[in-house]
Amino acid sequence: MTARVLVLNCGSSSVKYRLYDGETIRDRGTVERVGEPGGGPADHTAAVRGILDRLDLAGLGAVGHRVVHGGRRFSEPVLVDDEVFAAIGDLVPLAPLHNPANLAGIEAARRAMPDVPQVAVFDTAFHHTLPEAAATYAIDRDVAERYGIRRYGFHGTSHAYVSRRTADLLDRPYAELRTITLHLGNGASVCAVDGGRSVATSMGMSPLEGLVMGTRSGDLDPTIVFHLRREGGMAVDAIDDLLNHRSGLLGLTGVNDMREVLARRQAGDPAAALAFDVYCRRITGYVGAYYALLGAVDAVTFTAGVGEHSAQVRAASLAGLQRLGIRVDPDRNARSGDRVISPDGAEVAVCVVGTDEEREIALQTRAVVAARG
Length: 373
Ligand code: ADP
Hints:
The chain has 373 residues and is an alpha/beta fold. Helix content is 41%, strand content 18%. It has helices at residues 44-54, 82-90, 99-112, 132-135, 141-147, 156-170, 223-230, 236-245, 248-253, 258-266, 270-294, 304-309, 311-318, 330-334, 357-372; strands spanning 4-10, 15-21, 24-31, 60-67, 78-79, 118-122, 178-184, 188-194, 197-201, 299-303, 339-340, 349-352. Strand 1 (4-10) and strand 2 (15-21) form a beta hairpin. The longest helix is centred in the last third of the chain and has 25 residues, at 270-294. It binds adenosine-5'-diphosphate.
């Protein structure tokens, strides 16, 4: 029985950790500014070492690592051995901003605790059920095959957890429920879940596609990239940085935090008002599109920072969808906690559910170690 599990989530400039003893969180924290000048640890290896030194890891049964890109190869969590480690490395070209940090975390933990099983839990795995028609971009097939160009989807751990929690909340069998889950954090994505299977999702080959995010543009015309290269003379890396780190809410308003955007909008700032409209309109469009793809919808569920806390975003994103049976009750919307916010008797249940990716990673990590026997 693997009671004690450490979960490590190495982001591009931070490491989040949680130490579980069964369901109990014994320790948790975030190390920020990794690899940034002035202050933080020099790199992910140093950050993970620091965390391991500080924690009481007596009796630790496993370490669960969040890994962003699992490519086509990984459709479920796996025990990390040399071959798996190399395979995650092979996926770096598909996820240059994410997989290197994940690998560094795994490497540091393996070195420090060679006898403790390490499990990789992939953000892409839940989406391995996407139909070919959903995963395929309409470009030359040979080119796509050669470069691994297809929709992989991300935030899978969250979409899986939240869609399952929605079934619990509604007291309905998960295998029968058709849900649209909206993960609105700093990164944001939407997923259509049909009986526990991801059948459509807004993030694509990378986490850049889809919804408007804190610093990412989401959907745009690819010609914008050529135009910035040809007419703007921007280097490819500079365009990559622009679209991933300086766009979205940040690009439109100068701040990436939705709370600040809402405050400025309230104060009459036109840039913040426009950003809010662009953000919510994109969500409305995806909800309508995924409704059409699912054919019928039982629940629409909001989660993550913005989704859990902003009644305004929820109300504005679903406004005008009454004809689809989607309604939000203002009083229920204004409350907090996991709950249904649609009126009684509504055709579609609109829900708010707190996501917990770390807990889900701990669960999956235990399952992998248990299956190994
Ligand atoms: P991450 O994607 O980094 O895990 P979260 O899911 O915690 O982030 O979401 C972070 C975002 O949630 C913040 O950038 C902020 O914009 C938003 N947020 C948090 N609290 C609120 C709130 N009360 N109202 C609106 N937005 C909020």
